[in-house]
Amino acid sequence: MNKEDILKKAQAENHGRDYADIEAQKSGTRAAYFIAVFLVIIVDLVNGFVLGYVNRGMDFVLFTMAFVAFLTKYIKLRKRHELFVTIFWGLLALMMLTLWILQLCGVMA
Known about the structure:
By secondary structure, the chain is mainly α.
């Protein structure tokens, strides 16, 4: 196998995407996730101080994002640890959804 054949095979396996492109996308996704977490924490703190309560809808979105990320990882890797982490984030997301619905109904602030 010559150099060109190896390159063509690698590109076919990555659906025409370069390894550097894939790594840049992963890095960008990771950075975006951490910025989103930071911003949700800031918004929750400001809401807590200014409004006197925290809107659990934003927390629901954040935890659902983590749940989907780990679910995807579990589906690809099939590791028991990833399943436990996925269940943990899923339960947190359901808890935040429940709290958010209770807030919307006026049951709790």
